[in-house]
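Can anyone check this?
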Amino acid sequence: MFGWNEEDQVAQYDIDYRAAFEDAPIGQIIQRNRRIVACNHAFAKIFGGTIEDFVGTSSERLYPTQTDFAGTGERIGRLLDENLTILDDRVMRRLNGELFWVRVRGYTYTPRNPHEHTLWIFSDLTHVRQQASSLTPRERDVAALLIDGLTGKEVARALDISPRTVDIYKTRLLRKYDVASTPELVQRLLAR
């Protein structure tokens, strides 16, 4: 169609697919049964480590809690089985323990056993403005700290804002998620 065949194209550019994966400007991992078998530099940077810190490890340590890891795996597994792909915004944990919002897109190569062989792409939403997320950046900050178990006053200190401002954001979050308490809000946020 373009005047050259695939062999000519590969020969001309001598593509190194491993280097392309490792140097891609967006975080990527390949997993087998929820264990990381390969990741790239962008993923390692997002989660605060090196490639060596992640390869061969379970992705469980990247979730706020073990319960969240199990619940997300169950929910995502069903969706991957039905659709092969998924797009999800969720709270995850960096190696230093910091919680943050991330957009995750996943693909399974094995729909009958959706976690057996997967490809995942990650985008850090920490500095993203409103865009497609239903939460503002400050709402994400407050939500992540509430998920981590901080009180309103502790959230205020961590974000260098007043406790009253935290209350305003917390009230917005309660309304957005149609819940009446912080524990319900945390459950709803983790179930996203």
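Reply from J.R.: I decoded it. The two ends are 44 Å apart (CA to CA).
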